[in-house]
Design a protein that fits this description.
This protein has 200 residues and is mainly alpha-helical. It has a single domain, classed as Tetracycline Repressor, domain 2. The chain is 74% helix and 0% strand. It has helices spanning 5-25, 32-39, 43-49, 53-76, 81-90, 98-114, 118-144, 154-174, 181-193. The longest helix has 27 residues, at 118-144. The termini are far apart.
Length: 200
Amino acid sequence: MTDTAEQSHRKRELADAVCGVIAARGIRGTTVRAVAREGGWTTGVLTHYFADKTEMLNFACEAWMNRYHIEFLSAIGRRRGLSALRALLSSDLTADEPESERGTRIWLSLIEEAARNGALAGNWRGLYSAYVSECEEHIREAIEDGEVADSCDVATCSTALIAAVDGINIRRILDPHEFTLAVQRRALEQALALLPRPLA
């Protein structure tokens, strides 16, 4: 059955509340009771939608991922090639603002939980598959446009760039004062500079 507008709105509220608790308390502190308190509901509201904590986390993770994917696409706009690749990867860096910090903490907490939760791991594999495909598409465009050498191993370079951004975000969590957005961007530029360029 298709959700009504009211049901869809309530589900978005639920996902936001779950993510809010994850950001503040981590996965272990994200209980049905804590989420209910965050949203100003009774626990009965949550048990109406979710059978248990695992189902609640899986739902929130999927909603969060969908929103993240839309932000990725929005960051790219009509760009292509290296410009699009840079915009895509830059949009995944942690900005010097609370909301971006919150998103990075949610990301890391959900990744940690995925090691114990098969359904959550499946969601992450799907998100990373889309991320990799997007990166590969823009690397191929860069090859077509003469920005990157046609000898480039597209799959390996895409994997390496995404791994670099993930590592940058982890460093940001560990040392937010030192690893500012400007430092992150310089690190990303260094990673992009390793893409093979055409011979002059």
